[in-house]
Design goal:
The protein is mainly alpha-helical. The chain has one domain. Helix content is 61%, strand content 0%. The protein is globular and about 40 Å long.
């Protein structure tokens, strides 16, 4: 699973950018540790590897958030795989924010990434 985001990469590509700060790196490390803890006992260690049948177990959200996701399924004509992908990305975004469950803005951000992917890669 990949998340594609638009950015200004000219300085990053030439090595002249500032790079990631240690706070950002720590946030990513904490998110990965959270994933490992959540999936203890399962044979997976990260959100990208969650099987379709386990999505509901690891991707908890309220009814309003589920409604947003249903609307996205209809609007973007998502397949089951697309649905799973958005949930996994939403779970990762929530982990980066240290949120215990997926919230509406996490799903909205994941949907935006999905729309961006479709724009770039058809």
């Amino acid at each position: 699973m990949y998340i594609h985001i638009e950015g200004h990469a000219s300085e990053e590509l030439t090595g002249k950018g500032a790079g990631e700060g240690s706070a950002t790196v720590r946030r990513v490390v904490r998110a990965r540790e959270k994933q490992v803890c959540r999936m203890k006992g399962a044979e997976i260690r990260c959100n990208a590897k969650i099987a379709s049948k386990a999505i509901q177990e690891f991707c908890d959200m309220d009814s309003g958030t589920k409604d947003l996701l249903k609307a996205a399924i209809a609007q973007f004509n998502l397949t089951g795989r697309g649905y799973d992908h958005i949930l996994k990305v939403s779970r990762t975004i929530a982990d980066l924010e240290d949120a215990p469950q997926i919230e509406m803005h996490h799903v909205a951000e994941a949907i935006n990434y999905r729309a961006f992917d479709r724009k770039l890669f058809g």
